[in-house]
Amino acid sequence: MSEKSTIAVVGSGYVGLVAAVCFAEIGHNVICVDNDESKVSQLSDGEVPIFEEYLPELLARHRNKSIAFTTDLHAATQKSQIIIVAVGTPQSQTGSADLSYVDAVASQIARSITEYKLIVEKSTVPVYTNEWISRVIERNGVSRELFDVASNPEFLREGTAVADFLHADRIVIGVDNERAGNVLRAIYEPLTSGSYYQSADAVPGSRSTIDPPPLLQTSTKAAELIKHASNAFLAMKISFINVVSTLCEAAGADVEEVSKGIGTDGRIGPKFLKAGIGYGGSCFPKDVAAFRYVAEQLGVDFGLLREVEKINSEQKRRFFQKVRSALWTFRGKKLGVLGLAFKGGTDDIRESPAIDLIAQFLKEGCIISAYDPAAMERTKQVLPPSGTLSYAKDPYEAARDADALLVLTEWQEFAELDLDRLHYTLRYPIVIDGRNLFDREMMVRRGFTYLSIGRPGATQVKNAVLSNRLP
Ligand code: UDX
């Protein structure tokens, strides 16, 4: 039986909240700290502010037992040996990560240290942040003996965050001495020993007692770089396949076949090779920019990352052109839009390519009826309903009398639509699929004009673009 620790988690955003609930799930006492009073009272009442599988169940399981919520960072620090910092690191104007929240939290923690504490950075931060946190704490008069700072990056994806945490591919801990290493290894012991997976109530996933997640211990700097490099690499994979999809369109090949052919090479792997309308979300755009900035600061030319970003914007522009080529003109055209979230399985619309595209279509004078299974409420806050934008109660309502239907988010629900019903609901049976959700041949058999990304059929678009240029 592993030892129970008391852990304070500062920041109850995606990473903080999921980590806090999961630490409670593997047997620790957790104090979750946030300076947003309304969020704290919501969470204390058992309401979950984000759409995430297993989170409501686990919160209900541990609330009022091993997890508590507070705004009092001072008291939480005093009661805990481990303080996990998971506050936001938004993008600043230069593209670098804005570390002012991390800085402020480090100073506040410092003022509450009277005995040994391990401060763990879990927010995505640039290399050297660890050293800055140590400096801030020392400047506040705390002796080096009384604290360590470690890095423990989080790799969870929205929508599968709880399972990603509890069934991690790997757990990375960056420490600069064994005292910190011992404390951090101990809190993950229920996962790394496999004991968690013996419980009948354990959240299901890929890991098991005989195949627990490996723990990788590195220096703090390496752990900081691992997080940024992982996200940048995944974003690069997506941009790579997106350019290959353009090549496929030019050559008349199918990117899905090419992607499978590349991905079955064990050295490359099949994941993150899905062509689409570009990556979005709260992490990839921000982290690629921040990593590029880190490289610049260290005098390293990481031009590859600039290309990754450029390709990602170009991919949205290409989709926009694809729609134009199918519709010829935009003003007064009615578009049904399926999908607002930056990916399927989440209500998050941060940096969603769908939102950018909708804003552009509205600017061009289109009339849009949009539907998303989870993200409509959030979208209404940035794109309120208007004379030209409405929100539908289901996909068929969004499609009603539309000149074309656009698929902008890869929700499974969309892949299972009744195609015959969709066909007679649309004014013209044109589907422009930005996520390659449908089988191309089946769509053509069902009588749709079907355009997607990097698949044959897109040549029609090329011809259409050419004909648009005709006088
Ligand atoms: C990402 C990382 O995966 C995760 O490890 C990190 O902790 C946070 O950032 P997340 O932002 O939740 O997670 O989304 P992810 O599933 O990685 O997708 C990011 C974007 O890439 C989405 O817009 C998605 O639609 C797009 N994507 C993903 C593709 O276009 N093609 C793919 O093959 C995969």
Describe this structure in words.
The protein is built from 20 helices and 14 strands. It has 471 residues and is α/β, with parallel strands linked by helices. Among the domains are: 6-218, Rossmann fold; 228-309, N-(1-d-carboxylethyl)-l-norvaline Dehydrogenase, domain 2 (Orthogonal Bundle), CATH 1.10.1040. The strands form three sheets. Strands 3-2-1-4-5-6 form a six-stranded parallel sheet, with helices on both faces. Strands 11-10-9-12-13-14 form a six-stranded parallel sheet. Strands 7-8 form a two-stranded parallel ribbon. Strand 9 (334-338), helix 14 and strand 10 form a beta-alpha-beta unit. Helix 1 (14-25) crosses helix 3 (55-62), helix 10 (220-251) packs parallel to helix 13 and helix 13 (303-327) crosses helix 20 (458-468). The longest helix is centred in the middle third of the chain and has 32 residues, at 220-251. Mean pLDDT is 94; it is low at 458-471. The site of uridine-5'-diphosphate-xylopyranose has 19 residues, from helix 10. Uridine-5'-diphosphate-xylopyranose is lined by residues 154-158, 231, 234, 238, 272-274, 276, 279-281, 283-284, 342-343.
Quick one: how many beta strands?
Answer: 14
Tell me the CATH superfamily of one domain.
NAD(P)-binding Rossmann-like Domain
**Can you tell me the CATH architecture of one domain?**
3-Layer(aba) Sandwich
- The CATH topology of one domain is given as Rossmann fold
Broad shape: elongated
Mean pLDDT: 94
- Which CATH class of one domain applies here? Alpha Beta
- Structural class based on helices, strands and sheet pairing: alpha/beta
| Largest beta-sheet details | 6 strands, parallel
Bound molecules: uridine-5'-diphosphate-xylopyranose
Strand order of the largest sheet: 3-2-1-4-5-6
Give the helix tally: 20
How far the N terminus sits from the C terminus, by CA atoms, comes to 78 Å
> How many whole angstroms does the radius of gyration measure?
24 Å
Strand content: 5-15%
- Helical fraction equals 40-55%
Low-confidence segments, given as residue ranges, are 458-471
